[in-house]
User: What shape does this take?
Amino acid sequence: MEKKKVNINHEDVVIQVDNVSKSFGDLHVLRNVDLQLFNGENLVVLGRSGTGKSVLIKLISGLLKPDKGDIQVLGEIVNHLDERELRVLRQRIGFSFQNSALYDSMTVRENLEFPLVRNKRKLTRSEINKEVEEVLEGVGLAQAINQMPSELSGGQRKRIGIARTLILRPDIMLYDEPTAGLDPLTCLDINSLINQVQEQYQTSSIIITHDLSCAKMVGDRMVMLLDGKFERQGTFEEIFDTDDERVKPFYDYNFIV
Amino acid sequence: MGRKIEKLLIEFARIHRFMMSFLREAVSPPYEFKEIIRQCYEIGWKSFPLISLTGFIVGFVFTKQSRPSLEDFGATSWLPNLISIAIVRALAPLVTALIASGKVGSQIGAELSSMNVTEQIDAMEVSGTNPTKFLISTRIIATTTMIPVLCFYVAGIGLLGGYLSIATKDDLSILAFFTQVFESIAAKDVFAMVLRAVVFGFTIGFASTYVGYYSSKGTEGVGKAANAAVVSSMFLVFIEELLIVQLLSLIG
Ligand SMILES: Nc1ncnc2c1ncn2[C@@H]1O[C@H](COP(=O)(O)OP(=O)(O)OP(=O)(O)O)[C@@H](O)[C@H]1O
Ligand SMILES: [Mg+2]
Assistant: This one.
C-alpha cells in the first residue's frame, strides 16, 4: 500500500536537531545527531532495538536533556526552556508512548479529559464532553468511553493513547512504535489512523518503527539510526538500495526474500 | 568513599528539589480538590478497619499488662490516669504512624512506581500537565491531614479498649473512667499528640511519594519502592519521635 504524496515545503522546519549527543554513563546512545522535520510531513525513524530511537523523541519532548547540542521545536530551543515554558510548548506536541501509558486508575473518558481540563480551563462541561466524544469517534472507539484501560486490547489502548494526545490539537505528533505487538490487520488500522491524523489535524509527525510495512504506508521520508547516527535518509527505496550489512537484514526479514 | 559521599550529596539535592516543588505546587492554584478528596478517602477512610482493630488491641493489652505493677502498690485506681497519659503522649501517634507507614506507605510507593515504570508519569509531563501537583501534592496533603484524624480515633478506641480491660476486673462506670481520663490529660498533651501526628503524616506522605516517584524502571522497581517506602517511613518516624520527645522536654 503506497502513501499518498503530500507537498512538503523544505524551508518550513518544525523540528531541528543540531549536533546532539546523549550518553547514559559509559553508554553513548546518540553521537552528534542531526535531524530535521518539515512542516506537514510524516518522518519515519528506523533502527534496531536499543539504538536510541525512544531517547531521541524523549529529547525532543524535553523528557531528557541532551549532553551536547540544541533541539529546536516550533521555534523554541527545548533544552533552554524552564519548566513552565516547556509545559506550554508541550501542549503543541503529542506523544504516543510505546506502551500507550494510559492512566490505569481512570476510565477512557477521564484519560482523555485529563490533559484537556488542565490545559484549557475555560471550557465548559458540555464542551469538554463534546470534544472527548469527537476525538474518540475519530479513532473509532466511541463505545469504549466508560471502560477502564485494563479492559481494552493492545490495539485499542494504542488508539486511546493517540486520542488522548490529539485532544489538545497538537501541531507535532511523536509516535513511539505505534504498531509494535499488534496483528497485521490492527497494524493496518493504526497506519491509516496515522495518515488520517496527518490530513485531518495537519500535523507533522515522527514515527518510530521496526515495521517496514508501517514505514512504507505512513512515511513521506525515512531515516535510519545506525551506531548512534542517522546514516541513511530518503524514500523507502533509497534507504534499502544498499549492500550495507546493517541495513539489508531489516528488509529481508520484513519482506521475506 | 568519595563516591559514596558524592552520591549522598546528589540524593540530598534531589530531596531538596522534590520538597521545593511540592511546596510550590501545594500552595499555588489551580488546586486538585477532587483528587485530594479521593486520596483522603483512599488513605484515611480505607485505613479505618485496620486501625480500629490495632488501636483497640493496643489499649486493651497495655492496660492488662500495666495492672500487676500498679497492684503491687495497691494503686489500680490510677490505671485510667496511667493509660490515658501513655496513649495520648506516646502510643496513639506512634501506633497510627507505624500502621500507616505499612499500609499507606506501601500503597503510595507501589502505585507511583508502577506509574513511573509504565511511563504514566512521563505521559502527564508531556501533555503539559504537572505530575507533581496531581500525584505528589495531593497525596502528601492527604496523609498530613488524615493521619491526625486517624490518631484521634486511635486514642479514643485505645482508651475504650483500656476501659474494657479494666471493666473485666473492677466495677468502674464508663463515665467515671472518662472523667478520670480527661482530668489527667492536659491541653499540652493533646497539642503534642497533634504535633506528632502532623509531622508523622507529612513524613509518611513525603517519603513514600519520593521513593515511588524516583523508583528505578522495571517491574522489580515496584516491589523495591513499596518496600523502601515502608522502611524509610518507619525509620524517619522513630527518629522524629526521638527528636520531638527531646524538644518537648526542653520547652517543658
Ligand atoms: N533513562 C535511561 N537511563 C539509562 N539508560 C537509558 C535510559 N533510557 C534509555 N537508556 C538506554 O539507552 C539505549 C537506547 O534506548 P532506547 O529506549 O532509546 O532504545 P530504542 O531504540 O527505543 O529501542 P526499542 O526499539 O527496543 O524501543 C538503551 O541501551 C537503554 O538501555
Ligand atoms: Mg523504544
